[in-house]
Amino acid sequence: MIFILININALQGTDITLSCNYKGNVNNLQWYRQYPGSRPECLLLILQTNKYVQNTSITTPRHTGRLNEEKTRVDLMISSVELEDSALYHCALQPTVTGNPDSLYKNLSRPLGVNSALYSDQSVII
Known about the structure:
Layout: E1 5-9, E2 16-21, E3 28-34, E4 41-47, E5 52-55, E6 63-68, E7 73-78, E8 88-92, E9 113-117, E10 123-125
Antiparallel strand pairs: 1-9, 2-7, 3-4, 3-8, 4-5, 6-7, 8-10, 9-10
């Protein structure tokens, strides 16, 4: 597994886009949010067959998803980021994100920062 860390700083109130690249044909993609000490929660389910983005019970109007098949990428857009958006974000090719990793958290004491770890099931720490 290869990790590529990207550090993006975002001030509260700005818009951010988290991107996840994939290879091959997949039926659906998910974005999960995980707070420290908690299990992952599914934010968005994106069905590739009809490009339908399904929100979940924890999705707010500030969270939107987009599938870009040409670039084999799925994006999670968060508008007007807030401090409570600070979490670990997972991108998965199938609904298999489970567990509670204890080494990928970042506590924020200054303007919101975004770190993305890119790999087969990609995760982003905000």
